[in-house]
Amino acid sequence: MDIVIATAILATFFLLIGLGEPLASRLRLPFNVILAALGVLAGLGATFFLNTELTDALNPVAEAILNLPIRSNVFLYVFLPTLLFQVTLGMNLRRMLDDWVPILTLAVVAVVVATLSVGYALYFTGALPLMACLLIGSIVSTTDPSAVVSIFRNLAAPRRLSRIIEGESLLNDAAAIALFGLFMGFVMRGVPNPEMGPALARFPILLGGGALTGWIVAQLAVRVMSGLARFPLAQVTVSVALPYLAYILAERVVGASGVIAVVGAGLTLNLAAPGRLSPLAWTNLKEVWDLLAHWAGAFIFLLAALLIPRLLDGARPFDFALVAVVTLAAFAARGAILWGLLPILARLRLSPPVERSYRVAILWGGLRGAITLALALAVTESLRVPEEVRRLTGILATGFALFTLIVQGATLRPLIKGLGLEKLGPIDAALARQVVAVALQTVREEVAETTESYRLTRETVRSEAKGFAERLDEAVAAAEENDSIQDRDRITLGLIALAGAERDHVLELFRERAISARLAERALGEADRLIETTRTGGRTGYRRAARESLGQGGPTRLAAFLHNRLSISGPLSRLTADRFEMLLMQRLVLRDLDDFIDARIRRIHGRRVAELLHELLERRAEQVEQALDGLRLQYPGYAEELERRFIRRTALRFEEREYAALREDGLIGPELHATLVAELEARRAEAEARPKLDLAVQKAVLVQQFPLFADLDEGVRRRLAKALATRFVAAGEVLQRRDAPARSVSFIASGAVELETAGQTLRLGRGEMFGQLAVLSPRRRRAEVRALSHGVLLELDEVRFRRLLRRSKALREAVRDSAVKRGIDPERLAALGVAEAVG
């Protein structure tokens, strides 16, 4: 091919990509549908000019277009990794984990069901052998991420619906391509009835091996990129190499799924890189990948569309009946998952429910495109596949892909609108009115200041202010309407606005480099969760999300188990340090939200709502402070180290700002400025290093602070501190079960527990104990104790406890008081066999 013609074709393709997006916007059609149409027209036009006798001038161009080196490997090894990798960088993985069950069900189970449904439906027509039919089923069962993700991101669809669609389209490629490789091998070897069990047993290995490969390669890439802090272009270049290396290593070396390797690498970089790269470097990297993915997605559709006339060559009328069979079977399989399996999982509480309107959109949003055509092309390229199988595979895959792109793609936007998913709900509509009213009030104040500073003509200002005041009055009146929004919803709106302000404050701290990128990423995820749960659960959802943000969930329980039982302290140390830093940042952010309530929310929702929000905020601040107090008690010097680190980072930020101002004023030149900034960055690297947390609890200090041990002499307290065993607990952990043998007594150094016995529920906090009556009684435990929060217990065995009881009058009185709280008459303590111990 002539280099000039090739360059002209490439430039034309870029021109079509550039003009396709505004054309799609004007026609209100998905961008990828427009690209597919342009590609088909280009292919048909090239065929026409090559075969027509009207002119031969365009024959070289037509031949060049039709002879472009479009192979299946170009799609799978060049374009697909780019698309998948960019999508993973833009995902909010923490929010997507909330819907991991429906996502995996659609991405894996639905792919298998669709493959079998389409395969057996074709087999019953007698058109092809079973293995060839299953091969076609695997080809048409995958939704195309380049077709799906861009469409749903451009639609005004609910966030949750977009997350489910994006997650499915990301992961189902791996499942479909793995099944494709399995059936392709059987067809090429001519095996009519193979044993499926051993082959399907490799399926988890393909997925797990790919995920592990992607994680390892991404971790190495992050280490290399973090060492190139002074070379931002080099960092971006390393990231460009990452998905391709992961794909090739997984496919060619490990023998696993390259698609899953790319997804695993992207997700790993998404989670790890923000904490290792500078904010500017991470932003630049994502912008570069946005551009690369835009080009790759456009080219993959243009080039794949060029193949459509070639793949449909030789189609017969009966073939289109088979296309209808494939279409109906694919829709039936997808519908069975959406209306059969997902509701069952929701009833069993294994999955959050998926609304009916969402399921309709997911059913119609399962578009096929370039990946389906690429897999079909791989079959037509193989000479080891029978000719009839190659012909029908190309026709059926192309026909089905065209149906989804033209019919589904063109009608997806009207469907979303018809389902009411594009409309704002009552709360969102009220929130929009609130935003407009608050924004206009702020604009009025700023315009007044600006006009005064510029000394504009009073008549002009007065006439413009009159029109603006009318618009402002209308906006405030709309926001204050009581007919369309109840007080409960007003509280929800206020909480959403409060959570949004919290998110903005975190972003401001991050931009000013007052907090690390890693901490900011986690805090933004918590703020997003706060907003989402408040939208769905109102005040209750806000409280629940606020409690979860204290960092007392499942990972902490697992880390505490590893530390207590297996002496593996690393995970608990990291999680505790993260929690310490997160709580300090939350305290900093929450202090500034009271002003936001008074300045913004009170003007729209009134005094009553504002006071309620102040109360909720105050309660949340108390919970944060209590959690911090517990951590300070365990690690008294660590909070001070973190606060010193914050002060050092703040000072460096001010210093950097001062150097920039001096350069702008011309007082220092660029060379001196670069030198000063380089020295500052070296100091910043030292200041940003988080101090290491030592999990060793200072038991002697804790014993000194226990009122129960106040009457013990110093020597006894020192021996007691050595005898006490430390136990870390997490919220929700069962600390003591009913009917279990009593072997020790627990003293609460920090945190709180709940004790249930004989229909009673007691809450115990710092400085109290439990298990003492069970130890002193010959009977088994009657109470069950559960941790209400993260904390530390100091445990003493039965023998040492009895010995201590005889020494401490305060401890004996505490035992008597606990018996009274439990409804046990002190006179009956002798009947429990504890009279001698406490008397």
TrEMBL record:
Xref: Pfam families: cNMP_binding, Na_H_Exchanger
Single GO MF annotation: sodium:proton antiporter activity
GO terms for biological process, alphabetical: regulation of intracellular pH; sodium ion import across plasma membrane
Membrane topology: Multi-pass membrane protein
Source organism (scientific name): Limimaricola pyoseonensis
Protein's UniProt keywords contain Heme: no
InterPro entries per UniProt: Cation/H_exchanger_CPA1, Cation/H_exchanger_TM, cNMP-bd_dom, cNMP-bd_dom_sf, RmlC-like_jellyroll
Compartments in which it is found: Cell membrane
Main location: membrane
Annotated ranges, domain Cyclic nucleotide-binding: 708-822
Lineage of source species: Bacteria, Pseudomonadati, Pseudomonadota, Alphaproteobacteria, Rhodobacterales
Name assigned to this protein: Sodium/proton antiporter, CPA1 family
Gene3D superfamilies recorded: 6.10.140.1330, Jelly Rolls
Segments crossing the lipid bilayer: 6-24, 31-50, 74-93, 100-122, 170-188, 200-221, 233-250, 256-277, 289-308, 320-346, 358-380, 392-412
